[in-house]
From TrEMBL, chains A, B, C, D, E, F, G, H:
InterPro entries: YtoQ_family_protein. This is YtoQ family protein. It holds the Pfam family Nuc_deoxyri_tr3. It comes from the Bacteria. Gene3D superfamilies: 3.40.50.450.
C-alpha cells in the first residue's frame, strides 16, 4: 500500500527535501506532490503562458489560476496533506491549502513552531495532528505503516 | 427571500458594524452571523467553561474547540461568506474560514486592500468575488436582490 | 408547499414576465429567481462596483464574478431550474446554467424551439423534461401541485 | 503519476490531434479521452444501434443517449477537463461538458479566442484557467509535472 | 416539528387516503406528497402537454419525463419515504422510488404483505423498516413524535 | 436563528430534562430532539407494532429498526449533536450516534466524566468539543448565540 | 483504459455468459461483476453461514444481508451498470439495483423487450440508455472505446 | 479484483491473525489494514512523537490524534470494514469505527457473540451483515469472489 502526500507550505527554502530524504531513509512507500518550488517561476508562470498582463494584480491573477490548477489536481491525488507554517511570510496560501484539506476531509498534519500556537489555534483544531517539526510529521506517517 | 451572511475576519475592530449598518440603510433582507467579537472573551472561553488548562497552548486548544464549534454551526447556516483581510494580524483563522467556505462551495466574497494582492493571490482565485472595501461587498450583495 | 424556480436564459426580452404572469393566473405557489435582466447593468456591474478595468476582457471578468455570485446564491435556493434557448445569441451562459443544474441534480426543464433540437441534443438528454414553449413548462410545473 | 484529460469541444477538425502530438513531444504522462470524433458516426450511432427512429428529433435523442453515456463514463475517469470553443458551431454540448466539469469540481481549462470573451464570460469565470490556444493549455498541464 | 412523507406505490386504489386519514385522526404533524393518482391522467400527461407522440413507447417516455420531474421535486422535499407493494401490478416504478430513497439515504418504510417477502428480500434489507400494513407504518411514524 | 439539538445517550435517567430546563432558564432558542426515553417502550416497540418475534434477538432487531428510523429522521434535523457518556451501561448505541454525527460532519459535543477519558479517547478526538457536565455543554451552546 | 461493468438482473438463465462472450470476441477491456448466479446457493447462503433461521422470512433476511453486501461492494467498483429485465419473475431486486445505480449517478444501461415499455417507463427515463437486447448494450459499450 | 478490508476492534488479542490466516488458506485476494496492535505502543505513541504531556488526559489526546490519523487514512482505503465486539473492554472506539463506516456507507460486517445482541442492537441494524464469529465473516467475504 502506498500513500500520496501533498506538502503545502512556503516555497522559500528546501524543507520538502528534508522530508523526502527522511522518507527515503525510512524506506516509506510515499509519493510526494506539492507546488512549484521555484519561487520566481511560480510568480511568473501566468505571464509566461498567457503573456504580459496590465499590472501586478492581473499578473498575480494569471499566475494564481495556473498554480491553483496545479494544487487542485495534485491535492485531489493526495491521501494526506502536510502543511508547514513558520515565522516568516504571510502564508495565507498555506492556510488556504490546509483548510481546504480539512474541509474536504483529507487527513491533515500541521507543522508549526510552538511560538505560533496562538494565531494557528483554530486551524490546529481542524487538523488531524499538530506537530512542531517535519521529523515528527514523518514519524507519524511512518507509524501508519507499522504492523 | 432572505440570505444569511457569515462575516469572517479579525475581531479587533468594528468593521462588522459598518456592514450591518449599511445593510440596514439599504433595507436588505440579510441576517449576519459571525465569531465572538469580544477578543478577550474569545481567547478565554475555553478556560471559562472547561477550567484552568496546564499552559497557554492547551488554553488555546480549549478556546478553539468552542470557537470552531460556533463557526461550524453558524457557517453551516450561511448562504454566502464574506472574509475580510487587512494589513494587521496573521489572520490564519480568517484564511481558514475563507478557504473552508470555498471548499464547501459556499459563495465567498473576499475583501482585501490592493496592497495585499500578492500574498492573497491563491485565495483570491478561489473566491467568487474580490473587492477592496466592505462597501463594495455590500453593493454586490445588494445586486443579488435587484429585480 | 412552495417551490422556488430559477429562470435561466437570455436577458434580451421579457419571456420571464410571461412565465410569472401565467403562474400568477394559475395561482401556483412559486417563487421565481433569476439573473439581472437589465442587460446594460449586467454588463457594467463589474466596473460600477470595482471601478474601471484595463480593457474589455477584464471588464467582463469583473462583471462575471458578480453575476456568477448572484447565480450561485440564487440557484442554490432553487428547487427546479428552467432554461430557455432561442435562435438568437450564443447563450453559452444559459447552457452553463442548465448543465450546472443537471450536474448538481437539480431538476431541469429545458425550453427550446424544435428547430434547435440538433445542437441541443446532448443537453436535452440531461434535462428532466424538454418542451417547446414557456407555457408547456408552466403546465408541467402546475402538474406537480395537482392532487 | 499520470493524469487523464477529457478533451471537450467540436468534432469538426483535428485540434485534439495537435494536443496529443504536443503532449507526446513533451513526454507528458497524459491519457486523453473524449467524444467520438467521426461526426457522421456520432450523429448516426443511435439509429445504428437502436434502429430507425420516427423522425429527426428522436434520431437525435437516440444518438445523444449513447454519446452522453460515453461522455459520462469517460469524464468520470478524468483528472482535468479541457474545453475548446471557437467561432463556428453553436457548441452548446461543449458548454454543457465544461459547465458539468466545473459543477463537479473537476479542474477545467477553457480555450477560447479573445474575440469570444464576451459570450463566454460566465463560463470563463467558472474555469480554473482560461487560455487562447491549445499550446497554452499544454504548457499549463506540463507545469503540473515540473518539480 | 413537521415531517414530509413521500408515499410511493401503485395508483390504482386509495391506500394513500387511508394513511392520510389515520394521520389526521392521530393528529400527526405530517405533510404527504406523492405521484399523480389519477392513473389515466398520469399516462396521458405527456401527450397532453407535449402533443401526440409517434407511438406508445414515445407516449410513455413523454409522460415519464413529467412524472419523474414531479417525483424528483417532491421526493427531494421528503424527510421519509413510504413505499407500498402489493400482489398486483409490476410496480417497478415503486421499486425504483424505494431504492432511490434508500440510495439517497432517505429513511424508508416498506409496506408489503408477508407473501411477497421473497421477491422483496433485497429491497427489504435496504429499508429502514419493513411492515405489513399501512397502519403499522403510521404507528412507526407516530412513534417518532412521542416524547 | 434557532438550533435543533439531538441529545444522544442512555435513557435510564432524566439528564435530558436537566438540559432542557437549563436551556429554558437561559432563554436559548433551542429545540431538543432525541430517542424514546421510556426504556421499556423502546425495547418493546418492535413487537408492539410488528407482533411477537421468534426470540429475543429478533425482538431486538424489530425494535432497533424502529428506533433507528426515529434517530435517523431526527438527527437529520439537528444542527448539532450532544452525546453523553457515563460509567454505567455499554452505551454502544451512544457511541454509534456520536460517531455517526462526526462522520456526517454534524458538530458534536461529547459529555463524559474525566474517569472515562481513556476508553473515549478516539471518539473525543473526533468531537468538536469535549466537556464533563451537561452544564458545560449548555454554556458552549449558549456562547453560540452571544453577539 | 478498462471498465468494470456490473450486470444486474435475474439469475435464472445464462444471459451474462452471452454478454461476456461477446465482449471477449470484440476484444473489449471490460471486467464483469455481478450477483451469485447459482440461484439455490443465493437463496441458501444465509442459513449456510449463519445457521438455520426460525422461518422463511428470516431465512430470506439472512440471505439478503449477504447478497446485498456482495452487491454493494461490487457495484461500488463498477464504472457502469447494465440491468436486464424480462417477462418472467418479479425482478424487484433488479429494479432496486438499477435505481440505486441511477441515484448514485453511475451510468446505467437498461435492457428490456419492447413489450415491457409501459411498466418500465419511469425507470427507463432514469437510465442513460435503453436497449432491447444484450447485443445492443454491448455495441454501446464498445462505442465508448472507439477512437 | 482485490478488496481492502479494515479490521476494527480491540487490540488485546490476535483475532486479526486468525482472520488473515483463514484468508490465506482460502486464497482470497484480500489486503488487511487496521490499527496499531501493540497496545502499549498505541497508548504511548503520542508522547513518543510529541513529548511528555501534562497529564494522562492530554497524553491520551496526543495518542488519539495519531491513532485516528492512521485509522482515517487506512479506512479511506478500505472497500469493506469488519468490526469485532467481545465481552471485555468498553470498545467505544470500535463502535466509533463501525458507526463511521456505516455512516460513510462503507459496507460493514459486525462480529459479536449472541450474548451481546441487546447492547449492539442499534449498531447491528446499521451493519450490512451481523455474524457471530470471524470464520463466518470470512465465509461472507469469500462468497463475494465466487462466480
Amino acid at each position: 500500500m502506498e500513500l500520496t502526500v501533498y506538502l503545502a507550505g512556503q516555497i522559500h527554502d528546501d524543507w520538502r527535501e528534508q522530508i523526502k530524504s527522511q522518507a527515503k531513509d525510512m524506506n516509506l512507500p510515499l509519493t510526494f506532490v506539492g507546488p512549484m518550488e521555484d519561487h520566481e517561476r511560480s510568480d511568473n508562470i501566468g505571464e509566461e503562458i498567457l503573456g504580459k498582463q496590465p499590472n501586478a494584480i492581473f499578473k498575480d491573477e494569471a499566475a494564481s489560476s495556473i498554480n491553483n490548477l496545479r494544487t487542485d489536481i495534485l491535492m485531489n491525488k493526495a491521501d494526506v496533506v502536510v502543511a508547514l507554517f513558520g515565522e516568516k511570510y504571510k502564508q495565507w496560501n498555506t492556510a488556504m491549502d490546509a483548510a481546504r484539506a480539512a474541509a474536504l476531509h483529507k487527513p491533515l498534519i500541521l507543522i508549526r513552531p510552538e511560538a505560533l500556537h496562538h494565531p494557528l489555534k483554530e486551524l490546529s483544531s481542524k487538523a488531524s495532528l499538530v506537530v512542531e517539526t517535519p521529523q515528527q510529521a514523518m514519524q507519524a506517517l511512518s507509524y501508519i505503516f507499522e504492523s
